[in-house]
Structure formats: C-alpha cells, structure tokens
Amino acid sequence: MENTVSVNGTSHQVKPEYDALIIGAGFSGLRMIHECRQLGLSLKAFEAGPAVGGTCESWVYIMNFSKQLNDEWTWKERFPCQPEFHTRIQSARWNDDTHFWTLETEFGKKHTCKYFIPAGGVLSASRRLPFLGVERFKGEWYQSSYWPRHSVSLKGKRVAVVGNYVIPARNHLLSADQQESIKENYAEIWAEAKNQSFGMSMTDSHTPMSGLSEAKIQRVLEGGWEAGGFRFVFETFGDLISDRQSNDIASEFVRNKIRSVVKDEKTAEKLCPKYGLFAKRPPLGHYYFETFNRANVSLVDARTDPIKEVTEHGLCTESGEQYEFDTIIYAIGFDAGTGSLTSFDINGRNGENLGQKWASHVETYLGMAMTNFPNMFAIAAPQGPFANFPVVLDSQAPWVGKTISYMEKNNYKQVEPTQEAMAGWTKTVNDIYAMTILPEATKDSNSYFIGANVPGKKIEPLFWFGGIVPYFQACEEEVHTGFPNFVKS
C-alpha cells in the first residue's frame, strides 16, 4: 500500500512497514488479526502481556472466528483459562504528509502502518493503586488485573482482598454431553446471541412487571435467581433497566436473597447494594454470598471505614483499626472504556492528542472512529455496545474490514468521520442512557459505566445501552450507503 509524497516538487512513492498495526491480543485483537488476514493485509500485533489473553465475562463458546474452528475445537469450560508478548506501545502518531501512522514501543522501536487498530478492550487498563504506603508491605501483594503467570498459593495465609468484584463466577468444566451439544447447536446458539439485546445465548423477556400480582412477580424472579447470572436480568422481565419501580422490586429481591443467604445480619446488610440493579453487576445466584458464612471470612466496609494506608504488616483504616495479613490482593478494577486508549499518547491530525481531548468529553462515531484520527479504528472502545463482547467484536471487526476494503477498492489514502456524525452518535448514546434507570442508579455507585470508579475522570456514559441489534443495523447502514458519514480522500 504505497502513497505518493511530494518533496520539493518531486513525487516519491512511500510504503509503510505494515498495512495494519494492532494493539492487543485479547478477544478484540485476535478477532481483528483474523479479519486482517482474511483481507490479505500485512500486519503486526503488540501485546503488553506475555501471551494471548484478556478480560471477558462471556461464555467462551460465544465466539465465532470460523466454522472450521467451531467444528474442530472442543470447549471444555464455560469461561476461558486466561494466561496473561512483552511489548507496550508508548505512542502513536499520524503523519499528514505520508498519511501513515507511526507507533513507537517502550524500547524505542518504531513501526509504520496505513491502518492503526487499537484493540485493547474496555477492561484492560488497570487502575493505579490509590493507597498510601503500598511499598511498605513486607508480605506478598498482587493486583487482580496484573495477575502473575506463576502459581500463587494462599493456603494457610491471612489474605486481604481489597475490592468486591467476582468474575467469572460459577465457572466449571463442561460435561462431554454439554460439549457435544454446543458443537451440534453452535449455529443456533450464535444466532440467538446475535439477536439478544446484550449478545447472550438466551431469550429476552418482553413481559413488563407492571400489572402482575406480587406472587407472580416473586415466582418469576425466583426462577431467574435459580437460573443464575444474566438470566435473572434478561429472562425475567423486560423493563428492569427502563422502569424505576420494576428495578426497585428486583433490586430488593436481590437484597432479600443476600439477607437469606448470609447468616450474620450486619455482614448481609454490608453486602446489600445501596443502588439499583444494573448500576453495577452483583453476583446473581452464583453461590458467591455463601462465602461470607465461612468462619475464616470476614468483611470490612470500606465505605464507612476507608483504608487510610498500607503498613508493613497489613492495612490501617481511617478509624485506626489495624489488620495484619500475609498477602494482599488489590481487586479495584479498571479504567474502563477509555483507559486502554488514553494510557499512551495517540496524536492525530495537527498533533491533536486523544487523551487530552477525551479528558473533557468522549466523542466517537459508532464507538470505532474519531474525527482528526484518520485510518484509526478502535475495537471494543468507548460508546460501543455494553454487551457480550465476543458477539460485538464479530460485528465490529468485519465492519472495519469492509471499511478498509472500500478504501482500497477506491484508492483512498485516508478516511475519518465527520464532526457532525461524531456529535450525532454521542448525542444518541447519551439520549438512550438517559431513557434508562442508570443515570440515577450509577451516580452514587462509583460505576465504571460512567467512569465514576476513577477519581477525577469525567462522568459520562461510556457505552451504548441501546442493544446490539440496532447497533449492528447502524453499522451496516453506513456500509450499504457508501460511508456517507465519513470524509474520504
């Protein structure tokens, strides 16, 4: 893929080192690598970790690289075992003369490409530890988002888990019959997932809670709880995310379940969410809460008694309470949505810096492209769907592939969305978010849905909550109409 550059009135042909450079080797990066290979593009991928892997709450067999893979591979677990190549990108810069991107690694090596595809995902940028004295601790400490590859033994140790987030819950080996059933019904599983609002292999309930008897409501919620996980949210009632009263009833049902499971009343109340269902994701019917009935497990509420500092031997809270541990595990989450794209310098046209731009306001078009950042396609990025990401990726990656094919067929050097298209998409994302119970539910929950879990981060919707089917339709409409919302040259 050569471009013509004029120097002192003389034209020169310049060619990038690669057609495409991809950042990340998790679900997003691997799906994009596959897409680029199908297009015959030369490519190179970078991964900060030592092997492929990523973060995902999806059932692992909801991934659709190819029929050959589906037929030949046997999924043995619901969730993937994820080992954490040792190269981090320091900067990416657009060159207005060559119309290429230059990526520089942490080792100072530079690579050029026509198409820059960051695919770090929405849950890959770890939060910095905000606690004073982390380096003082004389025991072992780990961060869940940077978990080591070597085996970690906790047997017989006093362990602190700072944070309260479980993923993936209720993982288990699949039986031989389940494995065979998945293979035989893969097409149906995949079709069901692509037509469910959030990309799950289940059927949306369209029944509103209003008008039903209390007994009927409780029976339905009980069935959802026993089924566990997202089935409680999607297969019970169709208005849990849109109707405040319905959400309140479902939220109180969850709290009562916690109270019935956790024997110690004070611990149960600490575990009960003080916000609406879906502002964050509580474990639903996963046998998580039973853990707090064990004699060797206790709970400290950091909302009422925050951690003041880390000491040589453990943790000290604001009340002066001292806790001694052999191991501390920090499970404080991610700088979700924007973090993987703002953790290094991305400089577009005229040196515009993406991180600085997004510090005040996130804007994208379709959650994949940005004005003044030509030929850059972000996968699993802000303002894309909040959903089962492998299903989303199986739409986003082909869309990027179709965009690149369109460019090559028409000999375009660069493409980027118009400012109007980007502003319009951002408004739609915000308008749909405002139609749900989330604005009120997330404001006091420090939810990563709006960036509230990262101190100082702009509070705004970071995801599309309008369902994957309308999102897929918007992407396909752009392709079928010849990319009218893009500037092409």
UniProtKB/TrEMBL annotation:
Q: Name one Pfam family in it.
A: NAD_binding_8
UniProt GO MF annotations: oxidoreductase activity
SUPFAM superfamilies given in the database record: FAD/NAD(P)-binding domain
What is the superkingdom listed in this entry's lineage?
A: Eukaryota
Q: What keywords is this UniProt entry annotated with?
A: FAD, Flavoprotein, NADP, Oxidoreductase
UniProt name for this protein: FAD/NAD(P)-binding domain-containing protein
Q: Which PANTHER family match?
A: DUAL-FUNCTIONAL MONOOXYGENASE_METHYLTRANSFERASE PSOF (PTHR43098:SF5), L-ORNITHINE N(5)-MONOOXYGENASE-RELATED (PTHR43098)
Classification via Gene3D superfamilies: FAD/NAD(P)-binding domain
> What InterPro entries does the annotation carry?
FAD-binding_Monooxygenases, FAD/NAD-bd_sf
> Which species is listed as the source?
Zasmidium cellare ATCC 36951
